[in-house]
Amino acid sequence: MSVVALVPAAGRGERLGAAVPKALVELDGESLLVHAVRGLWASGCVHHVVVAAPPNQIDVVTAALSSLGAAVTVVSGGAERTESVWLALQAAVAEVPDTEVVLVHDAARAFTPPAMIRSVVEAVRAGAPAVVPVLPLADTVKQVDADGRVLATVDRASLRAVQTPQGFERGVLVRAHEAAAKAALGATDDAGLVERLGEPVLTVAGHTDAMKITTPFDLAVATALLTHRGRL
Ligand SMILES: Nc1ccn([C@@H]2O[C@H](COP(=O)(O)OP(=O)(O)OP(=O)(O)O)[C@@H](O)[C@H]2O)c(=O)n1
Ligand SMILES: C[C@](O)(CO)[C@H](O)COP(=O)(O)O
């Protein structure tokens, strides 16, 4: 029974503002996408990877990933993240029929520790239909109105920042995305679609290294992280 990782990598990276799509931005001579797929493969628990790439970069992405020795399929991504995941999920189901566990992992979280990836897969294998890695919040959180006036201080004790990879029992993720596609609904993460089905979503411990590279500041932090940690 296989574990397939879907890697949405088709975003433009507007907040980063690089000359190329964010997943193709290079650190230490390799794109964020290559770093991310290497981490998934290094976890030792992923059997196949499906990447949703920028539609005009399929050949570039396929060539860049070929050196990793991983089983990878590259498909065209969509206009929104949810659509990119759905396209990759359909390809995964067609290509790897015995898929049991599906991970959804942002290319932008390029330096996620393999041990964290394994903990997500183990939680799904132990019976959780959906699993998300989370971190507690470090800052005080305020709710504000449209003018920026503070309405309330939110109790952060029950709040968590959510990372990827998010792990799913395959049937649950397919049902969640079918329902979203039918209703033309998006979500900022895949677990959000599963929540709409009324299915439980469990959490496991996230890791600071699984930070999402969104802005130039994040890229500077990731550069320091890679220098400190080295390639896997
Ligand atoms: N149409 C899209 C949009 C996003 N993504 C992917 O979803 C992940 C998380 O998205 P984010 O980090 O927000 O990336 P972008 O959408 O590229 O960023 P921005 O909003 O700054 O343009 C990224 O790996 C991104 O490539 C995708 O596959 N398809
Ligand atoms: C999926 C995600 O990484 C979980 O934190 C995040 O929601 C994606 O961010 P985006 O900026 O909404 O694409």
UniProtKB/TrEMBL annotation:
The record marks 15, 22 as: Transition state stabilizer. PROSITE patterns: ISPD. GO terms for molecular function: nucleotidyltransferase activity. The keyword Transferase applies. Pfam families: IspD (PF01128). It is an enzyme of class 2 (transferase). It comes from the Bacteria. It catalyses: 2-C-methyl-D-erythritol 4-phosphate + CTP + H(+) = 4-CDP-2-C-methyl-D-erythritol + diphosphate. Its EC number is 2.7.7.60. The record marks 156, 212 as: Positions MEP for the nucleophilic attack. The keyword Nucleotidyltransferase applies. Pathway: Isoprenoid biosynthesis; isopentenyl diphosphate biosynthesis via DXP pathway; isopentenyl diphosphate from 1-deoxy-D-xylulose 5-phosphate: step 2/6. Keywords: Isoprene biosynthesis, Nucleotidyltransferase, Transferase. Belongs to the IspD/TarI cytidylyltransferase family. IspD subfamily. HAMAP family: IspD (MF_00108). Catalyzes the formation of 4-diphosphocytidyl-2-C-methyl-D-erythritol from CTP and 2-C-methyl-D-erythritol 4-phosphate (MEP). PANTHER family: 2-C-METHYL-D-ERYTHRITOL 4-PHOSPHATE CYTIDYLYLTRANSFERASE, CHLOROPLASTIC. This is 2-C-methyl-D-erythritol 4-phosphate cytidylyltransferase. It comes from Allokutzneria multivorans.
